[in-house]
Fold these 3 entries.
Entry 1:
Amino acid sequence: MRVAAQTLLLGATTAALAQEQKILGNFGDAAQQPLGQVGDAVRNPLEHITEALGEMPAAAKGLWDEMSLLVPGFVEKAGNLISRPKSHTRKPDSEWDHVVRGADVQGMWTETDGVKHRKVDGPLEAYDLRVKSVDPLALGIDKVKQYSGYLDDNENDKHLFYWFFESRNDPKNDPVVLWLNGGPGCSSMMGLFMELGPSSVDKNGQPTFNQHSWNNNASVIFLDQPVNVGYSYSSSSVSNTVAASKDIYALLTLFFEQFPEYSEQPFHIFGESYAGHYIPVFASEILSHKNRNINLQSIGIGNGLTDPLTQYTQYRPMACGEGGYKSVLDPSECQSMDNSLPRCQSLLKACYNSESAWNCVPATIYCNNAMIGPYQRSGMNVYDIREVCKDRENLCYTETAWISDYLNQNKVMKALGAEVDDYSSCNTDVNRNFVFQGDWGKPFHRLVPDLLKQIPVLIYAGDADYICNWLGNKEWTEALEWTGKKDYNSVKLEDLSLENNAYGQVKSSGNFTFMRIYQAGHMVPYNQPAGSLDFFNRWIGGEWWRA
């Protein structure tokens, strides 16, 4: 079994810090190495932090001293910045069906009426895209055309794995979608095999056809990002969302260069959980390039973490019976969360104001301990408030172990061209790097108003999720300052139905849409496969955003 017990709360925006005795400082092999160890010496953890974040500002010292009193072991936990490369063997270019050089693509020119234009812009010289045709018969996963491979950032030794499935319907005209799981640090192969891909994996390791796959009417790319997640690897690390956005732009640019038959079709980005951070940044990066071959039409975020300051106000209501399900906590625990909220908010405001890791790390640690910790200690599934977490070693879902075992088979890795020695669903090192570089608490919702001026934005949420609950997602969409705020907030939720049966609610105005999906946890397609395919098809068809 490849998923370690310590990854219990990964696969989403983790509550890693809420259960710090299990998550922080106890990561399998990492637990054998003293904090901050270099060679035979063991350094003070604060030295390790300073090396990673730079010199502590004088204004931050009081805050860190306070956190050390409020959260036992705070400095030691914050100093646990680890990033270890994954073991791998890179295959020669001759073993791939196609290799696209970024330098060649960036150098291409088009000509209109005698005027030359650069086909794409952006720093692509360091990037290559390697492509392998995947034989569907070899793995038994769907019958459609498939490609897998790596985006290579040769300058920084980063290699991102992707797997593309063509639409089952009309690939010449159907849109293309990029799917991203969250974590940060969890593989999108989980989304593929557990939620919306063409097959799931059963307990015997056999692929099972998914009739509700999102590639029924769209071609879908599943991407393992950032590096050192899933089949992706690097000798370095990516620990913030903005850095990862450059890789996404390069991947899509080179992919559509190799396969221009997909480049003119509408393109959408969908994802869940920490993708609430990723997607606004990735979309903004793409739209910043005037000359591009990426026809971005919309974005969709499911049960995402986008505006922590607003969303954290809804943890107590969700845990205490105000989200449509019975209370998980007793009144004293609910009161304790209410008492902790003002301090949490003040810390997050400081993070928002400075966007400095020296402010954002304490905010994340304090708020997760205060607002997520009480719920997690109840033993209930943070991804589904209706269930006890029965499989603590596998994100509360045994299916994650089945997926990991399947993707570690030699025949599967060979068919896909995987270059790592082993696959794991989530990488705890990557998760901690994002948390302890301050990325978690940052206000990425501030990018959404500008996106709304250019493309439609969908926010959807399964209403049984706790970790990125529907109350918080609805709250931040209504708090967002944008030109259409008044009109959007005046719209009431209406039934979202399939065959006259309501499976959720929707409100939409201008380019902004919110959906509440009934009886679904953090992973909406897992719990509501037919409903999720219905709203997905209706969304990419433009029902809520085309006049």
Entry 2:
Amino acid sequence: MAQQDDNLLKKIIAHAKEYGFVFPSSEIYDGLAAAYDYGQNGVELRNNIKSFWWKAMVQMNENIVGLDASIFMHPTTWKASGHVDAFNDPMIDNKDSKKRYRADVLLEEHIAKIEAKIDKEVDKAAKRFGDAFDKDQYLATNGRVLDYQKQIDDINARMKAALESEKLNDLKALIEELGIADPVSGSKKWTDVRQFNLMFSTELGSLADGASKIYLRPETAQGIFVNFLNVQKTGRMKIPFGIAQIGKAFRNEIIARQFIFRMREFEQMEMQFFVKPGDEMQWYEHWKETRIKWHKILGLGEDNYRFHDHLNLAHYANAACDIEFNFPMGFKELEGIHSRTDFDLKAHEEHSGKKLQFFDPQENKSYVPYVIETSIGLDRMFLAVLTAAYKEETLEDGSERTVLKIPAALAPYKVAVLPLLKKDGLPEKGREIMDSLKFDFNCQYDEKDAIGKRYRRQDAIGTPYCITIDHQTLEDNTVTLRHRDTSEQERIKVSELTGRVSELVSITSLLKQL
């Protein structure tokens, strides 16, 4: 269980701004809450994350194709999907601080504190028993741990019952009974819990049915569902097949906070996989396994991931889980994997009057496919990478550095070209090398300041390799290739640079592990 580390989050936010990754939106006007702009390094990292996801999802799978649907959709889309009637969060206000919270999140954070107590007991026992320690047996038999687990199970059961029955008073009663205080003021004076619809509405000039109210899409999935037949027929797709999409979504989050973790405008990377009814659970397990593998090959730390099964299933799901990541705020959702049944396609059939079915020639019949969804927040993935990458290190010579150990395939710049001096023909040679590399890699050229200072700058933005041009380069056409993570240096021929760097930074090497 991760402990919340507000200090780490503050450091990441400051670093992200100082080094051109993330800026507060419209900052010269004092910013806009929960809106952020991605700077020159941030946009490169985002694009690389998107590229890695797209290649793994679409390029590597013959039966998955892409789509880019409009943000604006006919308003009946959201009636059919259930968003107009059911896309609500249970909100509660603290009377003293005037802060607003999601009632279920307050309860989940209380549960996380109890889980931390269990972890503390496990750590103490592990130290006491050493190699003989059996964690599973300890969790199953220790009285104190069992008592903590019973508290967690009771809270979860009552929260689930209250959410499913929409008895919001029961949520408030549970919060008060547990003595949950406002994290800001410490006050325990709460208002009643009430539902708040998260969709942004806007006006459109004219619609065929005369209505003018439309919505900014709160998710990208519906654009895939309404195009199911278009893609299936034009692509001659056979079940099982998937449709992938990367795009913006918008939710009027009342408590958007924790930097880019929860924003009102965000980007999703989603894939809807259409399967034969009855086969959905084996595909659900397949995509759970496939997606966690995608995450882990990045090397962000095996222990930073865990699965969390949903207690309170959405109205459309028969199975759902999250891949959670160990953010500075503790373990939080990074990606969702859901078995959505045939809810969406059937709902759109009903509201549109159009058949959305697949004709199976083997069975000689038509049916509405079931859907397995994988949905990852790009902004959360970006924060996960920064969280795992951010390091403050003391080097052998006693000096300190802040380094972003971003996976090389995702790093904004793959190499920096650094002439040792701004004279003796070294800059000219540096430019020549830069010009040969920039066709294949995103490169930076830097000749300002001492070489050590330039290394630190590249460390801070996560550049995995630096190429230093010195006087020996002019004699034998070799350069120094410096490795960011170890500070080790290797001498390499200029003619071998492209091949060597490609081998070190290629997304292909990651994809081959899938």
Entry 3:
Amino acid sequence: MEHTTSTEAVGKLAEARSLIAAAWAEAADADLPAGHAAYFALLVEQLGQEFARAQLFAADLLRRTGAHQLDADSFQAIADAGEQPSAEDLARAAGRTTMGRTPYKNTAGLLHNWLGIPLGTARDRLAQADCLIAQVTTAGHRAQPLLPELAAEFTAPRSDPRLVLSASRLIHGAQKDFGPGPAGERARAGIQAEAVELIREQPATARKHVADLIHQLKSGKRPLGALLSEIGLFKLGRRKGLENYLLRLLPSQAEVLDAHLRKVDNPKTEAGNREDLHRQAAEDLAAENGDPDGWDNSETMPDWAQDPEAAAAEAEDPDHEDPGHEDPGPDDPDAAESTQSQPEPGGEAAGDEPPAASAAAELLVPFEDMRPELRHLMGLLATLKSTGTGKRQGAAAEVGIIIDYDKMLEAGQDFAVTITGKPISAGEARAALCNAGIYPVVLNGRDRILNLGRSQRLFSKSQAKALRIARRGCAFPGCTMPAERCELDHLDAWEKGGRTDIDLGDLYCTVHHIGRHCGLFHAVKVEGSRPMVLLPKSVDPEQRLHLNTHFLTPAESKRALAWAAEATQLWKAGKLKVTIAEA
């Protein structure tokens, strides 16, 4: 039997493998221009997308053809074909299946034992094939994929299949939460449609928002009693020399912790004081690895820990200082001069860190360069160790809540969200208002008391608070830098007549702030809207207006993306006033 089409397909794939291996080997040894290196990286990422598709289709092909039933001679013929098979090799590699005893029990076993793929990964690929390619019934018949909307997006030429796979895994893992019947089908179709829209419009935040949608689905079906039964701080014991804890919180409780960590990240707050935190970290390391608090010093050691023989030797030493001897007073300058402490060459001066702490400090990188996880831990421990007075008394966390007044009157629900994008219930919002400090931040309206015009160049503290609350984070699409770590930026340069108004300001992280002023992208002023971003044609050939939805809830993100698409159409039709800000 001839297999012309499949022979050509397998031959092309074998040739492609050889070409890819030769390409990276030549590129690694060549003196590439920077442009060719960038092009090489772009092509590799595009190949990665194609391989993500090919891997899933390969798993489905193995299952569809019953390849696990190939006999031993067929597997040997495949191995003998090698990396550059001839036409005869490919013909022999077509193989034959048998109904007798076979080396592999099923497709998952073939993937795991023959290709060396972890068993969990093999099973996941087959599950994803059910979702995105075709289901296989108990009778062995093929049916439409479980997630048809995502299946269509998976094969779309300009779509990133890795994002589709991620969304598919999340949705497939929540099958039981959709419920049975038509209502469950509608819920599943709705989340698929939202996932497809997110993948198309803003792929950088798609994973986060799809995960949020699934979390909302699961949270909405769980009573508060069930949630309360699972939260807490659990000690897991010591593993690999470290004490392990598991912290599980309600969303409202997590916001308090997040607010504290934002203060730790901000060096201008007491909680984020870099010198204090670095010193605290050094002391903790010294206590763990060195001599905590001079424990071996006989002068500070408690009586019950003293060595009697060492104490007797000190008593016989004529140079030993008598504890009852009084220091000369200030009226005896000669005595004071003679007894003044003089550090020996190479010794420590008064006030220097103990040797153990100094050695520990050398192990630490500057606090700003620490891993965020380590920095947050040190900040939290420092707050727990504080007495509530002194420098760290102002380290209490502040939780910001934004309330959509119109939505509150209209729907009475889903109207409150934290400044980090976590939705909170109406009850939680009412409880917060009972104890909150309310800031009169005007985010809409014609008269804005927070506009300073040309009266001063720098944004005021009130303006900074308003902008950080309104924007929540960096304005660049997909950037995850939160507001407290961003810089305030005039959309119109001050030196060119720009005004210090909150309408004409935005937030950018350091990287994207510099990038905007280098012309790598443009900030766009849109009438009646927050500023948007216009990416270069090399990134966005369609030249659409973009908003960063990373810090928004899924519902807010959906509305923001719809408005960005509408604003783009109106702008290109000449029906919306849009001004590209000068960097």
